[in-house]
């Protein structure tokens, strides 16, 4: 490509990245952490009994007890099996969810407020869902734009693929790091951008396809992707969920049941559907359908459906890395960190070219490291209050901004230290609140990485503070005679 095209791509890359840097960073950071949203659900209530499997009789008992205690009207009933990615038994309706033990006795109500806030931050930026998701999806398209313009603008891609220069004022190293992360993980970043854009644009795509191919009939398009409900004789009576679940060992012995749904509870069209994870397939699950009496009706047909249907049903696992256990989740976490650091390094390169304007630089670091502190303090608040966690998070972010404007010492290493000590405070209070349960697998699988972050943040902040001190000493040294003469 000619120089003009490359320069135009670079200009577009710079200005799009700068103007949307804060939103892109928050979406990328929350998405990176939300890769472990199922683990965070376990972490929030670590004392709940966990198990590998459950019998049909236990499921029946747990649901019967739940319905007796929660008789309110609901269109759906759900059972989350311990064979899912959360090794716990959960029974719920449209309003409440309760854990159950291995005997089918109810334990306590499910409470995942922090996890929900985190996921909502990633999906909607905590905005109203209707247009929050559209905004976040637009940011997914922006990520694709940044990846493509970054590749076009790269002048010596093949020569600089493994170059990482050190020394000087650090600006060149920052540029190299930004380019390497952008180049090496470009396929992942594009995939995240495309799948992220899909979630918010699905409604627009639905309307467009319906208008062009189905005379505006949206239901016809939906039925092409989501298999219509089975046509059954009028149903009545209590759904035989235990009988339906017992048949899965025969119907799909190679699959892991994830959860069960009773659709249209109490209505003539009531039916049971069990979703099971298909091995070696990227689709979210195959659906096995039963009538109210527990008789097998058929499968939804997602596993071997048309490629378009399979692609749509693979979007969730592709976006969140939920397809190869903890291996894929940790891979997505590392790649997500790279994408998040692209936002950080890109803004730092821009700030360095502007000679690091003090207030703008401090504000940026208050967003980057202050958001980590805000998440930690929000998780702490969740352990002691029952109010809105969204309000807590954004109030902390607002306080961070005020502190940054008022105090000139709120620089990058200071914010890094604050983030580390905030996470340390979270871990300390977590141990106080949960006691022995803070040492089980549900807790340690997240507490150990968080402790590692504390250690890294303190060490890194200490290095930056020393570097700042050395730079201040250099600036305070008197000019040499030769320099004064030249001046």
Automatic annotation (TrEMBL):
Keywords: Membrane, Transmembrane, Transmembrane helix. InterPro entries: PepSY-ass_TM. The keyword Transmembrane helix applies. The chain crosses the membrane at residues 12-36, 131-153, 188-212, 330-351, 363-381, 387-407, 414-433, 439-459. Pfam families: PepSY_TM. This is Peptidase.
